[in-house]
From TrEMBL:
Gene that encodes the chain: LOC111303394
Primary localization: Golgi
Name by which UniProt lists this protein: UDP-glucuronate 4-epimerase
EC identifiers of the protein: 5.1.3.6
Keyword Transport: no
Chemical reaction(s) catalysed: UDP-alpha-D-glucuronate = UDP-alpha-D-galacturonate
Subunit structure: Homodimer.
Organism annotation: Durio zibethinus (Durian)
Length: 359
């Protein structure tokens, strides 16, 4: 009873026309920011996260405490726990699901391939099964990834481009997720929006990502490894600042339309969309390092090696005209400004001498 009361309180809507959103992966990087933004504008938010130890669990716990301090409950549980999901939908008639829980990272797939299947495929299906049976059915917005474009060399990447050359198992599970969600849209009338995020960075970010681990190593005086691609070409990424991604997530939720089924039965055609959320301005990785050096006021020790072919793609570049058309998506933070904010957060969280940093 106490649990139900907490869930209901957290899901409470405080604006007219607001939504109640189940945010999966709420203790993750993107989930934390999206949950806070939703709560701030008066929407109800309940988080779900298994707080796994893919990276520093203490960082996830700190994000969870931050969310708690904003009145957002984060339930510790796994996407594959169908009973828990059903119980949540019994307590709250969620209007929307923001599905961000996943096994992220392209290289870890070489070490633990099954964790990708567990979270990105089996977990996704368990969530969709719950949503399909819910009454009313929630609209679903979920995170796919720019990695689905794989080794495609036509830039910028548009949603209709081929996604037939995944470079990692991670990319393959995201691509599978697009097909799986499309099927649930056809059969059960679930409203689905898949967002292809392009290298998201910012405060409370992910320690496994290059900008984050570079910062840590530069401060500790350790070398950083910079990959280069074919013919010694620099790798480039369409780095997208977290606040721009949050705007894209909220814009998607606001325009996601209604699911048209209930209790597992379809009543009519429901919307299905795939949208790029990027910055449309790729930056070469060595330039990222230059910017970090300037903000940190420390020189990096560069170790430049050929890309080992374990999941990375040579470059990414988003065409964002679809999201622009759908809800006026327009990224506004350049890498220089965004990294400044990241570095400020990093130094305040870990301290200049990096004592708290994970190994
Ligand atoms: P993250 O790892 O920080 O967040 C994901 C969260 O999901 C984690 O807190 C993790 O504990 C949780 N989780 C994982 N498996 C779970 C499961 N089975 N049950 C419950 N919780 C589980 O990652 P992020 O950077 O915040 O990414 C959010 C989403 O966006 C992910 O789907 C990711 O694949 C996608 N994405 C991210 C980026 C990026 O650059 N950050 C780029 C493209 C796509």
């Amino acid at each position: 009873i106490q649990w139900e009361k907490q869930v209901r309180n957290s899901a409470q809507i405080h604006r007219s026309g607001g939504m109640s959103v189940l945010v999966t992966g709420a203790a993750g990087f993107v989930g934390t920011h999206v949950s806070i933004a939703l709560k701030k504008r008066g929407d109800g938010v309940v988080g779900l996260d298994n707080l796994n130890n893919y990276y520093d669990p203490s960082l996830k716990k700190a994000r969870k405490s931050l969310l708690n301090s904003r009145g957002i409950l984060v339930i510790e549980g796994d996407l594959n726990d169908a009973k828990l999901l059903a119980k949540l939908f019994d307590v709250v008639a969620f209007t929307h699901v923001m599905h961000l829980a996943a096994q992220a990272g392209v290289r870890y797939a070489m070490e633990n391939p099954n964790s990708y299947v567990h979270s990105n495929i089996a977990g996704l299906v368990t969530l969709l099964e719950t949503c399909k049976s819910a009454n009313p059915q929630p609209a679903i917005v979920w995170a796919s990834s720019s990695s689905v474009y794989g080794l495609n060399e036509k830039v910028p990447f548009s949603e209709a481009d081929l996604t037939d050359q995944p470079a990692s198992l991670y990319a393959a599970t995201k691509k599978a997720g697009e097909e799986i969600t499309h099927t649930y849209n056809h059969i059960y009338g679930l409203s689905i929006t898949g967002l292809r995020f392009f290298t998201v960075y910012g405060p409370w970010g992910r320690p496994d990502m290059a900008y984050f681990s570079f910062t840590k190593n530069i401060l500790q005086g350790k070398p950083i490894t910079i990959y280069r691609g074919k013919n010694r070409a620099d790798l480039a990424r369409d780095f997208t600042y977290i606040d721009d991604i949050v705007k894209g997530c909220l814009g998607s939720l606001d325009t996601s339309g209604k699911s048209t089924g209930s209790g597992g039965k379809k009543r009519g055609p429901a919307p299905y969309r795939i949208l790029n959320l990027g910055n449309t301005s790729p930056v070469k990785v060595p330039e990222l390092v230059n910017i970090l050096e300037r903000h940190l006021k420390v020189k990096a020790k560069r170790n430049i090696v050929d890309m080992p072919g374990n999941g990375d793609v040579p470059f990414t570049h988003a065409n964002i005209s679809s999201a622009q058309r759908e809800f006026g998506y327009k990224p506004t933070t350049d890498l220089q400004t965004g990294l400044k904010k990241f570095v400020r957060w990093y130094l305040s969280y870990y301290g200049y001498n990096n004592r708290k940093a994970v190994q």
